[in-house]
What we know:
The complex is a heterodimer.
Chain A: H1 9-12, E1 21-24, H2 34-43, E2 48-51, H3 62-67, E3 71-76, H4 85-92, E4 97-100, H5 103-115, E5 120-122, E6 136-139, E7 142-147, E8 152-162, E9 168-169, H6 178-184, E10 185-195, E11 215-218
Parallel strand pairs in A: 1-2, 1-8, 2-3, 3-4, 8-10, 10-11
Antiparallel strand pairs in A: 5-7, 6-7, 8-9
Chain B: H1 6-15, E1 22-25, E2 44-47, E3 51-55, E4 76-83, H2 86-94, E5 100-103, E6 107-109, E7 114-115, H3 131-137, E8 140-144, E9 156-157, E10 170-174, E11 178-183, E12 186-192, H4 198-203, E13 209-211
Parallel strand pairs in B: 1-2, 1-5, 5-8, 6-9, 8-10, 12-13
Antiparallel strand pairs in B: 2-3, 3-4, 6-7, 10-11, 11-12
Helix pairs in contact in B: 2-3
Amino acid sequence: MIDKIVADCASAVAGVPDGATVLVGGFGGAGQPMHLIDALLAQGARDLVLVSNNAGNAEIGLAALLKAGRVRKLICSFPRQADSYVFDGLYRSGRLELELVPQGNLAERIRAAGAGIGAFFTPTGYGTPLAEGKETRRINGRDYVLEYPIHADFALIKAQRGDRWGNLVYRKAARNFGPVMAMAARCTVAQVDEVVPLGALDPEHIVTPGIFVHRVVAVGDTVQIGPAPAPAPGPAPGPAPKAD
Amino acid sequence: MQRLSRDQMAARVARDIPEGAYVNLGIGLPTTVGNHLPKDREIFLHSENGILGMGPAPAKGQEDWDLVNAGKQPVTLLTGGAFFHHADSFAMMRGGHLDICVLGAFQVSATGDLANWHTGAPDAIPAVGGAMDLAIGARRTFVMMEHVTKSGEHKIVARCSYPLTGVGCVSRIYTDLAVIDVTPDGLVALEWVDGLSFDELARLTGAPLRPARAGS
């Protein structure tokens, strides 16, 4: 019997090697797989290349992983946030490499990896500093930049419900990068609020079919309704976080 | 002269958005255009993080943190709205399916080059988000900004000195002083505020400008 459900988050992130490229879903907090990121922090893999739209907030989630010095390089579209001081400090002190990618190119490079595309020409970024040194081509009178796929060892994503075959549905705009990241990694791990029996998900409504998913872990209800959580504490005084 | 307030600028942009348009409003000032869209028009607001049919902010206490806009502020979904993943969302831009996007800017050039993501300051934390995709993706890119900087420097320039977001992508500029079209023949002022002469407007504009109507 196929059963992709794993018992806990530690099992879900088991085997992430040092130096791995890891896609991490989410747009800000929406869709960010906090439980899996915390488990990766505990698991201990280091020298990671993280691919994510943002660089985390305050000292939770992605920011906690950065703060712990586990990340060598970040591939990202929008690292700067009001409370991204962990990223800011590491970046300014040269302890974290950044590859800044326009958001649509980021999504498409991930999608291309999942879809077996060798490279693609995109108009986004043409003539800007983010296309410097890249191959360009004029096609039917329009200028394009050649971009390559982003393949990954692991994808950590968040969905609302999943079944033992790995079929997933998402909740509202927390879907964002989940479906494309699921396609692009050798091992895709989904944290879900709830595991449901096979057949409970309407086949017409399944967003990510199980072929793209390797491990599913239930973490309980993560839906947040109501005012914003209390503002995060500001950066701790003193030197930037130590990368150990 | 009757300089437009930020609200008046937003209302002015909103007037030009027709029934049935698919529209993306950028972070910051452009977001406020949403508050001025005429209630009798059905207009589809797109959000880069996978929303069509985005509605206004929710009532206090009803915020749903899985339903946020590009600025990561809570929003609502209109009846008939839809969610989709990021690759589809940016295909809507890059594929030319959006009718209009409205963006803020540091500078716009006479040929419609846009600089709005980076000031070029060496110590700045770089972040681009969806700006480059939006700038070149929508059928028409509107820029909404103050006509000059706080210190009085031109923001409409012959050539952008800040790093570019997109080349030749801006079609129209809305400022607190004027509405200006970017045309193959240069910048054309469609209207300007009361009490401001065309010559004064031209002086506040760092690239050649001509009036759309004669004798103004």
